[in-house]
Amino acid sequence: MRTLFSILFCIAAAAVYNKEYMLSRFTQLSKHIKPITGNTFNSFFNTTRTMSAAPSNTAFHGLPVIPPSEALTTTVPRKIHKSFLAIEQSEGAGARVRRSIGTPQLRNFSPFLMLDHFAIPPGAGFPDHPHRGQETITYLLSGAVDHEDFAGHKGTIEAGDLQFMTAGRGIVHAEMPRQNSDGSANVGMQLWVDLPKSLKACEPRYRDLRANEIPEATADDGKVKVKVISGQSYGTDSVKELAYTPVWLLDFTVQPGGHVKQALPKGWNAFAYTLSGTTIFSSSGVSRPIEQYHNVVFDKEGDSIEASVEDSAETESRFILVAGLPLDQPIVQYGPFVLTSRDEVVQAMMDYQTHSNGFERALNWESEIGKNMVH
């Protein structure tokens, strides 16, 4: 009964993230659920205790974002595997998102779990909610978003800033927009990244990256500008140790007539998301124009991507290029919990509902920014 109650309790929390899909998946899980043995619990709890023994501000536990022994080249541009429009939908409490990864079009594109292009109008937001087992990368394009969690961390990211959050063994937090005087929405991107199984029980960790900390590079006589958020572009390296799972994140602005040749680590999964304008992606003599709000998924084969904007284009284009190291592990995701087995998912539900094994501080906790939400 305790397990069944935990499942039902967490349906509501999970529905915030994927609504009808999540409800149907929980129904499937409840039909096949088995009692969790003591060995299963003990194995995960022992890992949790071992991983959490060190404070969250100790040495970096992740893998290097730039492969140390690999030569980066631009001789074989990757082909487009598929491209599709990110359709706008409701999310959270009044927010609007264009979700591309985490939909039937592209699900569990390891290590990527979800990509949202969000707009949070006045009175909307993402009030108190849990996470376990993943990292989130939030990139604010305009406005400002406040953050608060049950460990006492508080902060604000503004236009051009990023927050890298490692949920690890468990976090409960709120993400709420500033109320802009002109009534405009707060706009940004949020990417969910899977954690290696060995790090899913680590302590939560944050790293804010301010806009003025992000290196920039230019190319093609100034027609190409790139913010090197994570990774390497045109000889410029990013700030290190941002996320535990290696991810490259590059923000390109290309003027009419500009051409991009960007190396990527071999074997990594990669995609681009087009924020504005029309971008032409090319490979093996084939060029494809991609319009605004599309996700472009690249083949694994190849060492780079090529992109350009026509000379006659009326406006510049802007796109985010993302690449990540695939993780050789199962993905079992139910709402905000991302583990590698159904047993671990059920355990996460129980831990959240019983305020244990990482969620102790959730007992009677409410964020101040969530209380101040405008209704």
Automatic annotation (TrEMBL):
Residues 1-18 form the signal peptide. Keywords: Signal. Residues 95-193 form the Pirin N-terminal domain. Gene3D superfamilies: Jelly Rolls (2.60.120.10). It holds the Pfam family Pirin. SUPFAM superfamilies: RmlC-like cupins (SSF51182). InterPro entries: Pirin, Pirin_C_dom, Pirin_N_dom, RmlC-like_jellyroll, RmlC_Cupin_sf. It comes from the Eukaryota. Residues 250-357 form the Pirin C-terminal domain. Belongs to the pirin family. PANTHER family: PIRIN, PIRIN-RELATED. This is RmlC-like cupin. It comes from Zopfia rhizophila CBS 207.26.
